[in-house]
Amino acid sequence: MLKALVVALGLVATPALAAPVKVVATFSILGDMVAEVGGERVSVTTLVGPDGDAHVFQPSPGDARAVAAADLIVENGLGLEGWMERLAEASGYKGRVAVVSEGVKPRTMVEEEGGTPETITDPHAWQDLGNGERYVANIAAALSAADPAGAATYAANAAAYTEKLKAEDAKVRAAMAALPADRRRIITTHDAFGYFAAAYGLEILAPEGISTDSEASAAGIARLIEQIRETKVPAVFLENVTDPRMMQEIAKETGARIGGTLYSDALSDAKGPAPTYIDMFENNVAQLAAALGS
Fold first, then answer.
1. Which of 24, 176, 224, 273 could lock onto 200 through a cystine, CB 3.0 to 4.6 A?
2. What proportion of the chain, given as a percentage, has pLDDT over 70?
3. Residue 266 CB partners (closer than 8 Å, separation 6+)
4. pLDDT digits (tens, 9 = 90+) for 134-152
5. Same domain, yes or no, for 188 and 157?
6. β partners of residue 48
């Protein structure tokens, strides 16, 4: 009788987990997404933490132990985590790996390193919130495969989170559309914002290539300075994962304004302005609007 009453009232809960699903996310943005979709059913370990740089990350023995104990690895793919395959092999991990950029249309660009042009894939797909929605769907599918009993919970969490991402996407589009057309050009430390630029209507120049591990040449910086002077780029922006000195020198040489810090490859810590994926966009758009709006 009591069971029938519980069912009639719709009080049947999602089956409880004996222990949370242990997920290793490669960097902080993915860790935040996994936490949003997984909720209390997951325990997330993030390898590259707040303000960390996944391009140059060097795993530790502790990271190998975390991977070995994981039920699921969540990585970006698109060539970002060149160290992940070696880490998984060294740890002996044989479990599930979710590449959350699957289904995203990747951008390519030409990078000149050592004077030789090379077409490479841009891994920073999360900088377009539409791609972020694809990431969320892939995370929900991976968690459901690892923990079928929680599939309904993951689907519900993913749906609610996706609505938040759609709302943020609309806010970003409105803010960028409100900027004067002739001021929608910026300089950033490395090419992390190509997807953002394509989605939201900016032109982005950068002295370095895709990876922060590459160094801009003196000739490349000189060309960039000349381009800034010719096109009257209004602002240069620092990134939380890179050394600010080069951008400060470029600003000094060109008279362009330093527009603040953008979060590209990593979130801030909990006390910073970008502790979540959505907060990252809120911060970046506010910085862009303040520097480019007048």
1. 176
2. 74
3. 27, 28, 29, 48, 49, 50, 51, 52, 53, 54, 240, 241
4. 999 999 999 999 999 999 9
5. no
6. 27
